[in-house]
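hey so i finally got around to running the thing on that chain from the lab meeting. sorry it took forever, my laptop kept dying and i had to restart like 3 times. anyway pasting the input first so we r on the same page abt which one it is
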Amino acid sequence: MQTVRITTSQNIDIDYELAGVADRFLARLIDMGLFIAILLLAVILFVMTRGKGDNAVYIGAIAVIYACLFVFYDLLCESLMNGQSIGKRIMKIKVISLGGGRPSFSQYLLRWLFRIVDFTLSANACGLICALVTEKQQRVGDIVAGTTLIKTEPRTKIDNLALFSMSGTYQPFFKDIDALTDRDVALIQEVIRSYFKTNNAEIVINAAARVKEILAVTPPEEMNDLKFLQTVVRDYNHITVMNGVIADGLGR
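ok and heres what got predicted. didnt touch it at all, straight out
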């Protein structure tokens, strides 16, 4: 199971599982099935309205509209649906920029243009082989555009963010962590949970700024805001557990 680490514009590292060739293929089948359904609908409408107008004009108009939709479908969908077509949305995969942000229109355009190389001229062989052999499972269009396809669920789960440290050898990073209350830490955990549900980095930035103010600390440069909040939660959990152990020992 291959993953890619994306650093967001807010300097937060997120691990995503790469979309495999099977996911891409099934998404494409769904998209093609949609076009088959549209074609069948157009035929049914033609049969129902036959003889009520200029059939040649009707067929020509439908053919032009259908061809335009077919050719520009991926470009339009990915640009307007945040890196997804209908098939990709159903399969829960999307196009992302390796730079960490949402791909620009020029990146979507490059991916779309190189479909000619990946699929049309090579009968799908070039795109398939390239996705199988490249580290980030990219077709030629992805390599040129600086994009790849990922599964929309991040592999970094909330269960891995706020682990209780029961080891007596663990050393808290922040010494004045007891300035926080249980309610404060519960809110921090909720912020982290919300971030991984919504990808709204603003709430992490705001929460981290507030916690830094309360603790009067300046984290090292390599510790981004998300890691800072995770560390605070681990420190607090450890100190709480250790204090509980000491209290139990004194009570005995």
